[in-house]
Each structure stands twice: as C-alpha cells, then as structure tokens.
Amino acid sequence: MQLSHYSSIDSAVQSVINGNNYLVFEFRDKFSDNFETRVTEMFDASDESIENSVIHLYIDLSKIHTGYMAIKYLLDGYHTFIDKLGLMLNKPKMNEQLSTINIVEVFNGELSKVGVTFMFVGPQLFIFMEFIWGMILSAFIMVNDKSTNVMNRVFVSGVNEYEYMGAHILINGIISVGQVLVSMIFVFVVFAVQQSGSYWEIFLFLFIENLVGIFTGLLLAIILAGPISVVVATFSIMCAALTISGVVWPIETIHPLYRFISYTSPITIPIQSFRNIMVKGWTFTQPDVYHGDAGNYQDNIQPALDVIVTRPEYSNNCHHSCKYCCDGIDGVETL
C-alpha cells in the first residue's frame, strides 16, 4: 500500500473517482488539538471542534474486499490510537468509555482476524475445487477412452465391465489422493493457513468430496452419448454449484422460499460440514459433520454405483451387454 499527499481535498477525491486510489483520509486544520478538546471536554466541545476532530473518509467500494479491509484496518488503528491516548492521559479505560458495545467473548475465531484469513471463502472454495477436479478428470478420462476406442480394445482383451470400471475408479482415486495432498500442502504449509480441525479429518473429507466428483463425472460419461454432451453437462453442474451452493455468498441470504434449490447441489451440505471442521474444530462424531459425508454417499456415489452395477452395458456406450462390440477396430473381426 502506498500513501500519496494531495494539496487539496478536491484533487484527492477526484483521484478516487478516477480509480487512481482506493480511499482518501482528510485531516482538517488543527485535528490533534480539536481531538484533544473533544476527548478531555467531551460535553463542552463546540460543534466546530467536533467536526474538525473527525477523520473524513472517502472510499471506493467497487472492489468490495479492498474497501472492507481498508475500513477494518482503519477501525483497528483507531482502537490502538485510543488505547495509547488513554495511557498518555492516565485514562486506561478511555476505549470503553467511548464505546457502547462490549464484546465479552468471541467463539470460533479471532475478532482481529475477521475477513483476513482463509476462512472468509477458503473452506467452500476448497470443497468446490475438489469436487470439480474429480468430476472433470473422471469424465474426460472416460470420454477419451470412448473416443479413441481404448475401451473396446480393453473389452476384446477379456476384461469385463466391472473390472474396467474398478480400474477406472482406482486410477482416479490414486490421482485424487495426490491432488488432495498437494492442495493441503499449498494451503497449510506454503500459505500457513491456520485452522482448528484435524488434518487427518480434513484430508479424509476432501478425499471423499473428490470421490463424489469422480463418481459424478463417471455417471455423466457412461450415460451421455457424445463428448459434447459430457462437456455441456459438466460445465453446467460446475456453474450451478458455484452459484447456488454457498461458495460465494451464504445460502442464508437466499429467500427461504427458494432455499431448497441450494440443497440440490452436491456440495451445499458438505461445505457447511467442512466449515465446521476447519473453523469450529468439530470431528466426524458431530452430526453436522458426518451428515455431509452421508449425504454425499446417498445422493451422489450410490446412484453412480447403481448404474455401474445394474447397467454395465452403459460402460461401452452400447445398448446390449455384448463385450465384443468392436466396430471400427482394425484387425478385429466384428461380431
């Protein structure tokens, strides 16, 4: 952050309007003297003294996070200033005298770090990225196998549908473990994000969410016929999950009449459960945590398993169970 001095308030305000600066502080004539008068003679200070003892702020909120953090740090600086001023004037409780709100205790966080840490949007983005990564990876590996006839060659070699699907899930699961570990290393080691839960439970929850994405992508790829359909369905789910699941804004801001729509997303409840792990330090023994995983299995993994187990013929995009459907493969006799 860089501070710039302007000779007039008009030019300073214009710099904010033009987008050159984020905010302007205006300290009027004899600010310090007027502020001292305001503090020591609280009920006898004139209107002029009060007006000249106020820091006038002009701020651009087009970048909401920048504006929010500017106001937050300004208030933090003000409280620090009042504390030091109280010590200088031998009034150590000056801050309490000037405030009408007394925050007795803060649960699950620190008041000085509100909006600063990863907890602002981090947990929900964590869940969103794990789900999307698993879904895209699984769907496009399956689409690639279909489009390059890899799947048919595998079936010709004697592998059945269940073995092929098991291998597909295993490969994606191994990749998922690596991806979750890399994500956690970047967040908790490189960026040194502090959280209140167990790292093992965080890993397990993220891995399960990645599996949900894998099974969702697998379900799309084995039901939909062409690559274009899979791409459209994948990105439709991704956009819907981003907008209605509480990733960007809390679902509590949605009108209760329409809030049920949010719960159609596969990551809405897991986001709430994961926040309870990271922010509150809860474990899987808490209902509000394990309900997220139970919902994942019931609403996402179980339907995919049902399709794979009961309708294996979908795996090679045919409408019969013959595993030797090999049209177009050179050197193989078509049956």
TrEMBL record:
The keyword GTP-binding does not apply. InterPro entries: ABC-2_transporter_component (IPR051449), ABC2_TM (IPR013525). Residues 4-283 form the ABC-2 type transporter transmembrane domain. It comes from Medioppia subpectinata. GO terms for molecular function: ABC-type transporter activity. It is found in: Cell membrane. It is a multi-pass membrane protein. The chain crosses the membrane at residues 125-144, 164-191, 203-224, 230-251. The lineage of its organism: Eukaryota, Metazoa, Ecdysozoa, Arthropoda, Chelicerata. PANTHER family: MEMBRANE COMPONENT OF ABC TRANSPORTER YHHJ-RELATED (PTHR30294), TRANSPORT PERMEASE PROTEIN (PTHR30294:SF38). Keywords: Cell membrane, Membrane, Transmembrane, Transmembrane helix. This is ABC-2 type transporter transmembrane domain-containing protein. The keyword Cell inner membrane does not apply. Coiled coil: none annotated. GO terms for cellular component: plasma membrane.
